[in-house]
Amino acid sequence: MARMGTLHLVRHAQASFGADDYDRLSARGQQQALRLGEYWRERGLRFDAVLTGTLRRHAQTLAGIAEGLGQALPAAQSLPALNEYDGRALIAALHAAPPAVDTPEGYRQYFRLLCDALAQWMAGTLSPAGMPAWQDFHAGVHGVLEQVRQQHAGQQVLLVSSGGPISTAIGQVLATPPEVTIALNMRLRNSAVSEFSVAPKRLMLQTFNTLAHLDAPPYADWVTHA
Questions:
Q1: DSSP class of residue 81?
Q2: Does residue 178 surpass a pLDDT of 70?
Q3: SS3 of 197, please?
Q4: What is the per-residue pLDDT for 5?
Q5: What is 5-84+133-219's CATH number?
Q6: Residue 112 burial by CB count (10 A; 0-12/13-18/19+): exposed, middle or buried?
Q7: Cβ atoms of 47 and 71 closer than 8 Å
Q8: For position 19, what pLDDT does the model report?
Q9: By its UniProt entry, which InterPro entries does this protein fall under (predicted)?
Q10: CA-to-CA distance for 187 and 1, rounded, in angstroms?
Q11: Would residue 177 be called left, alpha or beta, if left means φ above 0 and alpha means ψ between -120 and 50 degrees?
C-alpha cells in the first residue's frame, strides 16, 4: 500500500486588518508564524514541497515558519490561484460603503456585508471589479488540489494561503453548499492549520482550523481571526 501524504493548509498569520495596507503581518502575526515553525520543529516535521499564494502576508508567514523550523525548506512555488479574493471590491459591488472596523459593531457589520457579497458572487449575481468570476476562482483552487494529488501523493506538503482559498479547498473536498463554505471561511483563524490526507486518487479532510501550536498558557492571547 502506498504511503499516505499530508497537505498542511495554513491560513496566513495575523495581518494588518483595518490599516491602509492590510497585506503585511502585524507584530502578533510574526510571532504566530514563528511559533508554528517552532512547534513543527519540536515534532521533527519536514516538508517535501511548499506552495504559497503571491501576497506579501503569505511570504511573510512562510518566512516566519521557516525561521521557527530552523531548516531549509524546498523552494516555494508561488501560485496566484492561492491568493485571497478582494473583500473591499466585494462590498463595493453591493454599493455599500465599507464600515469603519475600529468598533465591535463596525467589525460585525463589515463581515455581515462580506458574507452577503460572497453569497451573491458565488451565485453568479455579483461581479466585483477586478475579480474573477466565482467559477474561475473555484477552478483555480481545484487545479492546485489536483496538482498536489497528482504530484505529491505520499509526501508532506506545506501550503500557505488565505481563508478564501482554504475554505474553498475544504468545500471541494467535502462537497459543501456555498453557505457552508462561507461559514468555514469565517471561522478560520490566523496561522490555523487544516490537514488533508493525500492519496493518488483523492484528498480527505483530517483536521480543520487547529491551533495546537498556541495551545499553552503563554499563548492564550495569541488567537486572532483577522
A1: G
A2: yes
A3: strand
A4: 95
A5: 3.40.50.1240
A6: exposed
A7: no
A8: 60
A9: His_Pase_superF_clade-1, His_PPase_superfam, Mito_Ser/Thr_phosphatase
A10: 35
A11: beta
The residues near 200 (Cβ < 8 Å, ≥ 6 apart) are 2, 149, 150, 153
Give tens-digit pLDDT for 36-71. 999 999 999 999 999 999 999 999 999 999 999 999
Q: What is the pLDDT of residues 73-127, one digit of tens each?
A: 999 999 999 999 999 999 999 987 777 777 888 889 999 999 999 999 999 999 9
pLDDT per position as a tens digit, 142-176? 999 999 999 999 999 999 999 999 999 999 999 99
Amino acid symbol at 80: P
Each domain of the chain, given as residue ranges in start order, spans 5-84+133-219, 86-130
Q: Residue type at 51?
A: L
CB 205 within 8 A of CB 173: yes
